[in-house]
From TrEMBL:
Coiled coil: none
GO cellular component, one term: mitochondrion
Similarity annotation: Belongs to the ACBP family.
Localization: Cytoplasm
InterPro entries assigned to the protein according to its UniProt record, in alphabetical order: Acyl-CoA-binding_prot_CS, Acyl-CoA-binding_protein, Acyl-CoA-binding_sf, FERM/acyl-CoA-bd_prot_sf
Function text: May be involved in the energy metabolism of the mature sperm.
Pfam families: ACBP
Name of the protein in question: Diazepam-binding inhibitor-like 5
Biological process, per Gene Ontology: fatty acid metabolic process
Organism: Propithecus coquereli (Coquerel's sifaka)
PROSITE patterns with a match to the protein in the record: ACB_1, ACB_2
GO molecular function: fatty-acyl-CoA binding
Amino acid sequence: MCQVEFELACAAIKQLKGPLSDQEKLLVYGFYKQATQGDCDIPAPPASEVKAKAKWEAWSQNKGMSKMDAMRIYISKVEELKKKEEG
C-alpha cells in the first residue's frame, strides 16, 4: 500500500458518475482527512453549521487511526464505490 495507490483512489473518486449519498461522502471524507492530516485538531463547529459539523464528526471518528490505515481504508472504500457504480 503506498502513496501512489492513495492518489489514484483520490483521482478515481472524482471520476465516479453516479451520485454518492451524503453518508458515503462523509465516510470517505473522514478517511481522507485522517490519511492526509492525521487526528482532527480543530474545535468542533457549532451545531448550527450542519455541514461543517457533519464533516468534523466524520473526521473525528477516526481519531487515533494511523495515516497508513486511513489510506488503506480510503482506497478500499473508493474501490467499493467504483464496483457499486459498475454493477
